[in-house]
Amino acid sequence: MASRLIPVIAILFLGFMVLGPLIVLIPMADQNFILSDSDWAALKFTIFQAICSAFLSVLIGWPLARALARQNFKGKQFLILLLGAPFILPVLVAILGLLSVFGHNGLVNLTLSALGFDSLSIYGLQGILLAHIYFNVPLATRLIYQGLNSIPQERWRLGSALSLTSLTRFRIIEWPVIRQIAPQAFGAIFVICLTSFAIVLTLGGGPRSTTIEVAIYQAIRFDLDFAKAAVLGLSQFALAGITVILAVWVLGNAPSLSGGLDRSNTFQKISTKMQLFDWSIIIVISLFLILPLAMIFLKGIGHFSLLGPKILLAAFYSIMMALTSTLICMGLACALSYKWGEVLGTLGIATSPLVIGAGLFLIIRKFDNPFDYALLVTVLVNAIMGLPFAIRIIRPAAEDIRRDYAKLSRSLSLTSIGWTFWVFLPRLRKPLGYAGGLVAALSMGDLGVIALFGGSDFATLPLKIYQLMGAYRMDQALSSAVVLVLLSYSLFFIFDYLGTNRNA
Amino acid sequence: MLDASFTARIDGFTLSAHFILEKSGVIAVIGPSGSGKSSLLNAIAGYARITDGHISWKESPIHMKEASERPIATLFQDNNLFPHLTIKRNLALAVTQWPWLSLTHKTIVQKSLNSIGLSGFENRLPSSLSGGQRSRAALARVLLQGRPILLLDEPFSALGPGLKDEMLDLVAKIANEQNLLVMIVTHDPRDAIRIAPKTLTVIDGQVEGPLSTKEALNKKSGPLSKYLQKKP
Prior knowledge:
Chain A contains 21 helices and no strands. By secondary structure, chain A is an all-alpha fold. Chain A is globular, with a radius of gyration of 24 Å. Chain B has eight helices and ten strands. Classes of the chains: A mainly alpha, B alpha/beta.
């Protein structure tokens, strides 16, 4: 049977990774414990943009979820499935896509200038919000859609039997569900945007729109001001304290990531005006989500010849690192597949990768050159970042296995190793495959700690793309982005396929 | 012999037992549902801790041992086979946890499969077998564990009456051949009469006996009279 040793090791490791940086940061920050004006501005901006992003995402996701819940059309299930895709879309790929639509030479600005208008800038708050909306509208939509779909048909039928006006129907039937789900969706998106790094780094475009994460990065990377990085890291930690409470609350009630139920709403009469509204929403948001990706493929696919050995090497590093992160993350997730483990694992989503990264950077700096440890640190941090998702997927199945087969295994005197390989892992195959796919894809596309540590010797594919963007080599960046997006989704589907059990 | 004298608090419910069983033979465990029959088996097998007292087998105490180290094999109500492993592997786990089987182990497993009429099914998954075949495979598995005490917690309750009788007879035959002590929980007095000369009764957490099965099941004077008369 499962021994106690493994969970203890997992907790110690997690504790070291999450609390270690905190312990290092406190003495480093002794003199400058006061936040400077620019740090305060960063803190305020961090919270402000997260609130705006969450609010807008829910506000846009809600009518789309409504439209999807009451309209039936061919390909609806596919569209809903597609709404799950941005979750593992590499951030830089989305940014490149948004730039090709909304950027300086993007579709929108080309149209505007053709019509004689001034061009719009994507850099700054508007760009950050745009990218956050791009990633989180699908999430908000899925959450609200699942909520709306959980309303029993009978209630709609009753509503139409009583000939309620559409306003009353909304108030009595829909609003109670929205009131419950919308704050959850808001909370989840707020937490995600609070620690958003790559989007702010690339689209922030100046000191006025800098978050704490980016400020930490700049303090270490450009100013070598470790005391400042420490203060910023601690403020992010304090923010994380609030976030942990939010995240535990959100994850405690969050619906699953899987698609909604296939139920059609036949009892709801919709006016022609609403019909028109629904369809415009569906079409506009679908275009908003699909167009940037389509642009990447259109512009990137012609330039594969530009991909030099350095980019291929970066791709190779990225794959190897994603696989290692996944392996570590799955090991931790299995060891922590208990209720208390889920709470601990949630720390990963609350503490930011940049803070952990900065802490580890400062720890390693005392012994050796931190830049030599870029790959190791990135792998470990990505493993921890994937942990909350992995545990959420794995825990229910793990608990079923323990409930159903612990007695039989004890009766057979199975050792921990025997239990793990004959019972636990084989029966956990499906959730393990799915979770592994998610974590592998997330690690593959991540631009976080590696930006802090990475030099020119060791670059992951996302870092390489970031460097290419910085050097205005857009063609190369775009074709690398195509490679990245293909690799990320391939990893996800390969893992998920390996998890499908062919004989039971 | 199995000497049990203990009390156990299991999920807020108290079980107390004082009995001595011979070292072989089939003993039925009968009582109303919720009276503590399964708890009794759990305490003996080591899935529940006893609060005080002792359980000894052949003069040596076993109650502080881990379930996996007691001289006991158990057939549960369900989940007796791993559904993702072949029948052969399920049986082999009773003798080895290595992925590769030695020649001796191969022979043992094959012999056991033959003896229960499942040769040819070794590479099938439990789900592709009939209920009766699954029960036989599970029985073969506990026998392969080679432990002197066999606990059966209503393992055949999902089978039809004909198949159930067949399995009970098989258990009685094997217990006799291999000199095993078998304790079988049942809610059907006919099962007890069929294979168990002696019976332990469990009523409201009190274990009594062993009595001869006839005496225990006597509708007028037996300890279970209230319970038996309620039934139509």
